[in-house]
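Good morning C.,

I know you're traveling, so I'll keep this short. The sequence:
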Amino acid sequence: MSANRCLHLFSRLQRHIIPRAARCPVSSGSALLHRHHQDGSQVSSRTVSSDSFSSKPPDTSLFVPVSLKADASEDGDVGVELTQPLDRTELLKVLNRFYKKKEMQKLAADHGLDARLFHQAFISFRKYVLETLFLPADLHIILSDICSGSGHVDDIYPYFMRHAKLIFPMLDCMDDLRKISDLRVPANWYPDARAIQRKVIFHAGPTNSGKTYQAIQRYLAAKSGVYCGPLKLLAHEIFEKSNNAGVPCDLVTGEERSFMDPDGRASAHVACTIEMCSVTTPYEVAVIDEIQMIRDPSRGWAWTRALLGLCAEEIHVCGEPAAIHFIRELMFTTGEEVEVNTYKRLTPFEILDQAVESLNNLRPGDCIVCFSKNDIYSISRQIEAKGLECAVIYGSLPPGTKLSQAKKFNDPDDPCKILVATDAIGMGLNLSIRRIIFNSLIKPNVNDKGEKQMDTISTSQALQIGGRAGRFSSVYQEGQVTTMHRDDLPVLKELLSRSVEPIQTAGLHPTAEQIEMFAYHLPDATLSNLVDIFVSLSQVDGMYFVCNIDDFKFLADMIQHIPLNLRSRYVFCTAPINKKQPFVCTSFLKFARQFSRDEPLTYNWVCRHVSWPLSAPKNIKDLIHLEAVHDVFDLYLWLSYRFMDMFPDTAMVRESQQELDDIIKQGVRNITLLIRATKSSITAPLGSRRGQKGAISGSASAANVTNKRAERGPVEELMDSSLAGRLVRDGLLTPDLLRQLQMEWSKNKKQEVPNQSALDKDHRDNTRVNNKRKK
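The tokens, ready to paste straight into the viewer:
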């Protein structure tokens, strides 16, 4: 090779000799966020120390390696020309020696590669080295020297780390990611609120103590105000009460905007759901209702945001006394004092010494509280079978239907005097209840890990629900609380005798801006993975926790394959939908797909999707589908206020939703007929089904129990067995599928009988032959 050729090759090689220190660029947003934390640090006693970033190691199981193509190097065959072709067999031995060296593993761990990442990075690096046609000249020369014995295997490390940072880009910008996910001083996220001195008044008291009433009176007297409630029903109530009192008030929920001004100008007062409150609009008075929900695993972040961020001269918070100490501590971090006003219950309520035990012992004004819709269907049917009318309220009913059922129950001239409901009555509805009857004290909930489990209700929940009995200004001035079953009564008494557990933490949630900054550093990560890494790296002090994000991730994974920009994808994933409803999830997916095509979702398109118009329900299955369609309309309206151009037909969809609400109301009025029709359709092929598990009163005789069991079909007997019943209750198996399985089992048994007869015949023939041979 000529001298000129050598000089040319070495000039091209020079830029590879010094290892490249590729640093991940810092976005302007990241710098702004860090500056924002520093600017507001003077108002908080908690400081952010850069030294503490290393205190929480990241969960490296969330780091997904980026796929790299084994393309030829831009250097071409320079390495081969300078040295010689590499022997793949010898090269493999060299790489494996590097992998087994403990010193290399420890050195990599010091640079962020734990055992898991080290292994993944090595697999990728080995594949890259062995499969790439022409390696970069510097790497080729190093490997050639090691294979020939003139180099050391440790010389591979810089090139290995260079490759590791390509497939794990977060390694090079970990400090920036930690700064973005630092959630330890959330008070500093709201500079407008920190710029004013706010007065915080805590109205503390039990249910039906008038605490919210006092806060609302101050709200109505103010020049401007905002009410933040946990439910649409509560926002509607304050909206109507304010306007009826002559105080113009707007309504803002996730799915609805109602402005009193004909020209659409905002009123000085607004009633909203807490997620929709503005933290930049100045008010004289703000009311935050049910402040104890600041510790809610899923929605607690909304109360934290409102309490820390509302720009109001006076912040009135209403809730349980168990939150007083924590709110004081939280406000101490902002330098704001808390004035506490305590209230006592306006009407007394007592815990009865006897359980109801039988539906025959029901009286007017009774409310039976269940924690599953199946129990509601069963009990309401049994009540009406005794000639009594009952109202039904549960969470998935539309707000209009809930109000209709509440009005029916409250009307003294209506023959309906009994209410069957879930814990949805715990807040948001004014009901004239004399006696609360807990049908069960076991409720499904979601633990800190996002897992569903069955657990006894808390003291706070028992007080919230039981406190609905004997409401002030209702027909029943004194309330009573008891249970349906005798065994539950001692448990209820113990629950109500306890003190409510003090609130100790408040929820937080990553914002769209924070996720966008993460995406800048990790452009190849999915949204679900970005959120996982954010939570893994997040720093929170002892007063806060990161809210459960399983629902967010569920929606993110569902639409990951759909091409959307990050901000739109984030908004879609914050949509409040019930992931247990398959039809709603399917609609969500279709909405996202249509949106990604830049095609507006018109009223006609939605009608085709939901098969509108819909007829009245004929059974419970139809009613559940109508409720799902109502949720789809809610989803459309929710998205229409975030993407107005793409969801243009808000008025027509709302009109159809109101028509659907009327259809559902009619179906709920006839819910007993729907239940009867449903059970008839299930048991028709197998004979009539009489009686139901749990429907027999404690005074029924053993003979009656035997007769009822004898009349039950095989499907019902299977449903009463532990495994089948659990599968049906959990929704993993429907009665129809259970019936089909029973029919298949019966068919298989019939096939087995002839086969067994044939075997017996063969056995007899063989015996006969053997006997003849013996003779």
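Safe travels,
E.
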